[in-house]
Specification:
CATH topology of the largest domain: Glucose Permease (Domain IIA)
Number of domains: 2
Helix content: 10-25%
Largest sheet: 8 strands, antiparallel
Radius of gyration: 20 Å
Mean pLDDT: 90
Shape: elongated
CATH superfamily of the largest domain: Glucose Permease (Domain IIA)
Oligomer: single chain
Order of helices and strands: EHHEEEEEEHEEEEEEEEE
Number of helices: 3
CATH architecture of the largest domain: Distorted Sandwich
CATH class of the largest domain: Mainly Beta
Strand content: 35-45%
Length: 218
């Protein structure tokens, strides 16, 4: 288990806050043990939350040239045919994964290939399970072109708590299956738009793990 680099600033802020609140407890309430314990417990709670949220667990990646691997941990909340209006402008099979604050929030490439399109969209912060969050919220759009010519589009979508999306790719980059392509801080979701006819191995309600669960086959 490692600590993800995106959490360093948050961890430092929590540790500084912990030092301050413990100092206040001892300096202004020297005879009140309950104030000391409150400061200790609050500091420990916040530190554990940050360590849990930004964890980077060691995993053996599930890989395969014809496999579509889950790009994130979470629950499958949408499987439907829909019109993708930004890039393909035609009908696609949408699969959406909702990440709660308890999930690992690292995002990974579902297939290998080349990043053929990338765009960042500022936007709102609706709850990630709202249907409009896919088009109205802050988000990124990333398209990876497989070696066989087929393309998969996926979006990092911010949620009501998620206020920062991080990405590590740009157009023309090589995408390595299960390699890290970004991070979303706090509750959020990832949408995938797959070619019609894609054979899926998941259904609504399934819990998947990024880099380990097979969503389908190209």
């Amino acid at each position: 288990m490692k600590f993800h680099k995106e959490g360093y600033i948050s961890l430092v802020l929590v540790l500084v806050f912990s030092v301050i609140i413990i100092f206040i407890g001892h300096h202004f309430f020297p005879t009140y043990a309950i104030a000391h314990w409150f400061a200790y417990l609050l500091s420990a709670f916040l530190t554990i939350i940050i360590l849990q949220f930004f964890r980077d667990p060691t995993r053996e990646f599930k890989m395969g040239d014809n496999l579509i691997i889950a790009p994130a941990d979470g629950k499958v909340v949408v499987i439907e045919e829909t019109i993708e209006l930004e890039y393909f402008k035609d009908k696609r099979l949408q699969v959406s994964i909702f990440m709660s604050p308890l999930n690992v929030h690292i995002n990974r490439f579902p297939i290998s290939g080349m990043v053929s399109f990338f765009k960042y969209h500022p936007g709102k912060f609706l709850a990630a399970w709202e249907p409009k969050s896919s088009t109205d919220n802050e988000r990124t759009t990333i398209v990876v072109k497989h070696n066989n010519g087929k393309e998969i589009l996926f979006r990092q979508v911010a949620g009501a708590l998620a206020r920062r999306i991080v990405w590590y790719c740009k157009e023309g980059d090589k995408a390595e299956q299960c390699g890290q392509m970004g991070f979303i801080k706090f509750g959020s979701r990832v949408d995938l738009f797959l070619p019609l006819g894609t054979k899926l191995n998941v259904k609504i309600g399934d819990v998947v793990k990024g880099s380990q669960s097979v969503l389908g086959e190209i």
